[in-house]
Amino acid sequence: MGASYYQFCPVAKAMELLDERWTLLIIRELLSGSEHFNEVRRGVPRMSPTLLSKRLNQLVRAGVVDKRADGNGARYVLTAAGEELRPVVGALAVWGVHWAGELGDRDLDPKLLMWDMRRNIDCGGVPDGRTVVLFVFPDAPARDRRWWLVLDPGGADVCDVDPGYEVSVTVTADLRQMILIWRGDIGWLDAMRAGAVEIQGPETLRRALPGWFGTSPFAEVSRPA
Q1: Tens of pLDDT along 106-144?
Q2: Domains identified in the chain, total number
Q3: What CDD domains has UniProt attached to this entry (predicted)?
Q4: Could you list the residue range(s) of the whole structural domain that residue 165 is in?
Q5: Averaged over 149-170, what is the pLDDT?
């Protein structure tokens, strides 16, 4: 628990737990389907493993998360109290779309982008067998420029090192523009027409690729005028 506000107000009591740095983002990850430590960590890539472990343990003690044995590891599953935060996190996301303002350069995190895109892929639309999509972000730091998404009808995985499979199609994109596509601020076609995104590969894959990728759950939220 964070420092007490020493107020009987229920908002104050809730925020004693929830307003510590990273806590709500961890809950966002759990609400999005992450259960294992490394899955949650990939959704908060700039958080140290030590702090993530501390925050998860705090949430377990508070009764918001249940830690369950899973082979040699553990699963972190939201309790009923944690699930009740779903509309709270959703409302904060909608508010952020309306009022949080422009993205700064330091907000453009390719690790989080690839993790979010991975779990919103229409695997049913991907060709049979293995399809490997290489994303190249020339404007990202050197260590974060190349990402491989390995797709098949059963699921998808994201790799930050070459998995050794033949690349089916390559997407070269301005990182900010790719994030704007994910957020629903612009469409694939508009970004391609502007030269911010280029797709290379067989024509059938080039045409089909944008349809494989969904957008943020909040992409349909109306933007302020």
Answers
A1: 999 999 999 999 988 987 888 889 999 999 999 999 999
A2: 2
A3: HTH_ARSR
A4: 105-211
A5: 92
Side chain identity, residue 20: E
pLDDT exceeds cutoff 90 at 4 = no
**Which pLDDT tens digit goes with each residue over 38-70?**
999 999 999 999 999 999 999 999 999 999 998
Residue 84: give its domain's CATH number: 1.10.10.10
DSSP codes of every residue in the chain: ---------HHHHHHHHHTSTTHHHHHHHHHTT--SHHHHHHHSTTS-HHHHHHHHHHHHHTTSEEEEEETTEEEEEE-HHHHTTHHHHHHHHHHHHHHS-PPPGGG--HHHHHHHHHTTB-GGGSPSS-EEEEEE-TTS-GGGSEEEEEEETTEEEEESS--SSPPSEEEEE-HHHHHHHHHTSS-HHHHHHTTSEEEES-HHHHHHHHHHB---TTTTSPPP-
